[in-house]
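[retry 2/3] Copper transport protein: previous attempt timed out, resubmitting with same input.
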Amino acid sequence: MQGVPPPSNSTVPPMIGHRLRHMMMHMTFFWGRDSEILFDGWPGYGRPGMYILALAVVFLLAIFVEWLSHCNIVRKPARQGRAAAGLLQTIMYGVRIGLAYLVMLAVMSFNAGVFLAAIAGHVLGFFFIGSLAFEKPAPPDSTKTTDLPPMSCC
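[retry 2/3] Copper transport protein: success.
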């Protein structure tokens, strides 16, 4: 029984060839605004304004991750409010981890601009929120704590 011969490259419809070009993923860092970050088709190709918006979103996500890592919203709860405080901390932890993974996935686009935006967001977020530069003096009888445990790099 004879099989059907495979199609030659010249018979591939133009739209499929166009789609195949966009499906290729970079495996090394590259410079350029033509990239897909986090979602299919976003920020798109040949749209510099959307690329700048994508960089700003990654930058702000990184700052928000740093804020969640150093915030102190939950006050020391009374005995009856411990469960609610623990639930709030757990929700905040889930949001922080989810956003940190989004930043990581954006960096995995291997776009150097996205990488720099993520690093800049984490660095500036830590400088303004977590460093000693803007720390308010604490009362002598209190210890500085945050709502969430530090993110571990190990």
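[retry 2/3] Copper transport protein: Residues 56-134 form one domain.
[retry 2/3] clearing retry counter.
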